[in-house]
Amino acid sequence: SADVAVGEEADFNGPVAWGTFAIGMVGGLGLFFLAPRLLADGINWLLHVQDALIGNLVEGVARLLLIVGYIWLIGRLAEIQRVFAYHGAEHKTINAYEANAPLTPESVSRFPLEHPRCGTGFLLVVVIISILIFSLLGDLPLVVRYLSRILLIPIIATISYEYIRLLATNLDKPFVRVLVAPQLALQRL
Q: What are the pLDDT digits (tens) for 161-180?
């Protein structure tokens, strides 16, 4: 910032930090969890569909398209491309470290950009797990339906984390590599 002298740290604490965090959380929850549900309810209403499973699947597909579209869209920004490049370098380094390879630029450069425990892959798994869980809930009253999208996030995130962790410990199995492939493909996006 222009108000911060060179070598001086910016102070990002207190109300500004918490306000920014709150706006980000509300925006993220609204965009990625409530908006797809609202879209599904709107489509069901327009088409006079009363099937909860169809509504939950429409919601899940909308959420998936939003996540993939968001990653693709922000990946077109020059600043974010630089962040993604650093992130890929981190993956290469972690892959080299986990293979007990020397952590030199020459050695690390031979390793893949993708990593099976990446946060981007985690987002994909969260979407898939949310589709499964929300579909199992069936038809809920309107307020409960929307509250469940927020209140179940920690449970969905925990299941997703454990799923990724389980897969990562079994990458030597061919069927596990098939299950991990979509996560790695999303990272290439």
A: 999 999 999 999 999 999 99
